[in-house]
Amino acid sequence: MIAAQSLGIQFGGEYLFRDVSFLISSGERIGLIGANGAGKTTLMRALIGRQQPDDGRISASRHATIGYLPQEGIVLSDVSVRDEVMKAFGEVVEMERQIEEMSAEIGRRSDETGTPGFDALMNDLGELQHRFEAMNGFAATGEVEKVLMGLGFQPEDLDRPCREFSGGWQMRIELAKLLLRRPDLLMLDEPTNHLDIESLTWLEGYLQRYEGSILLISHDRAFLDAITNKIFELAMQRLTVYTGNYSRYLEERQARREQQQAAYENQQKEIAETERFIERFRYKATKASQVQSRVKALERMERLSPVEAEVSSVHFRFPPAPRSGRVVVETQGVHKHYGDHHVLRGIDFVLERGEKVAFLGRNGEGKTTFSRIMAGLEPYEGEVQVGYNVTIGYFAQHQAEDLDPKRTVLETLDAVATGDIRQNLRTLLGAFLFQGEDVFKRVGVLSGGEKSRLALAKLLLQPTNLMVLDEPTNHLDMASKEVLKQALIDYDGALVVVSHDRDFLNGIVGKCVEFREGGIREYLGGIEDYLRRHRTGTINEVFADPGRSGADGRAAQPKVQPPKGAEAVDGVSARERKRLEAEQRNRRYAATKELKKKLARVEEMVAKLEEEKGEREEEAARPETYGNPEQARRVQARLAELERELARRYDEWGRTAAEIEQVEQGL
Q1: Which of the ends of the chain has fewer CB neighbours closer than 10 A, N or C?
Q2: Would you give the distance in Å from CA 42 to the centre of its chain?
């Protein structure tokens, strides 16, 4: 599909990578990994022609289509979200318009039946309808809504202008368009950065069913494990290929490192023995030829390099947390609204000493807002009580703005470090991707990501007994995340972390708090326990009959039957047969068009009813519900209504599907 041969790209006079060769074949799912700055994004841009390589060349199949989602920089038009995403079906939309125009033209010219011009028009319409059906044109609108809902949009969002959404949500819109275009090669650069856990889980399932090839940059280990079957590692200016997902890559890489280190050590022994022989017999005439032979052998020897220490081998511990009271923070009836938009409605929450909690939920549901309220950084209505002797450390991306631009990276940490850790500041900075001379850079010249990493490292050096972290891993690579994760596991204070990185959260938190519709739900257990309770399928899972659904999850269209009796006509010309087939397709399209649209609407309604049913069942199981007889009756009454409505919709779906089949068989 696409191949790179001896690629090399320079930046600032030095090679990011060189002599890189690989082949991406049909159906492969590849994770492109490496430290920040290794050149992953640059390589992707080269593959789509946005970056010209200094060396080598790129070849692609003539008819292969490539879709690319960058990390940032998407600016969309002022049209509605729905209309913007429908651009992914540009050809289908245009075909539907042409079909309607041609059908109307045929109706106006019905008295010309049998003329060459009329027959040609009928043939053209038949071919167009055939292509429209083959491209699943009837389901386009439903597909758009399904993908947008999966990526976190609400029904009321679909008709809002794209410009009203933040950059992160506009990236989701662009991602939806890419998914619906279904290119042969889908290239995604950190697609999970702007997704919450629900949307991320949906995207993971969608990509697992994706029929094309995928090239993915991500620092989310769980996401890579679920999707990839091959890993491209960019490191030390070279690309190394590993078979398997990310976990398999780690095993194989460790084995290769051990082999490399063993080979290096054996070579060092051989060199030492050779040098001892040369030194011992250098001045003996009888050994002169042997000495010269070994000197030349040493000169010709290709020296191996030792295995470099990995960042993940760095161990860091927080300063001991000052002793606090049992209750660290307690909130009662906390409300927060922006104008008419109520983000939080009467939140009651208690965090105890040493407790580690993940704040989860869709973007915009109030996770960050409540975190800032707990940290004393956001006005609110209600009551927040901070416990005895509680000291709070808070991190969010904007914390970088508080750094002194005149200090160096090293001076910034040295100003807050105390005790023995001051002797290891450069090691700690290395774990946060500040290598070599980087530690002497002024803060004012750092990028936004570098400032965020420095602000996080600074926070970790300050003694606190409550740490509130809002998306702390956004600018960290795999190894740096592992250093931070281990430190948080060992941290003896209370922790609140807002994150969508499942692998990072796994092993750290013992409670999950889900934010939804202004309220919260608390779940004891780690992130895996939470996900097991909330795991759902695609929006059309209720209809996941192998006979009806394609591999991509879309509802399969009924198979087109050959025109009834067409083969039984003796003596008809090929032209006449083609005309009859075209008429048959036209009748079938006209007879089933509205029925198929109705079927798609029923499927969407069933999916929404099933979702609400699940939510009401969860509500019924909560102690505050069954402990309140009036509330319990209300929830059970709604559940009964949903059961009746679902039964009615299932019947409607069955009747409509049967009606479509009956109509097609009768034509």
Answers
A1: C
A2: 19
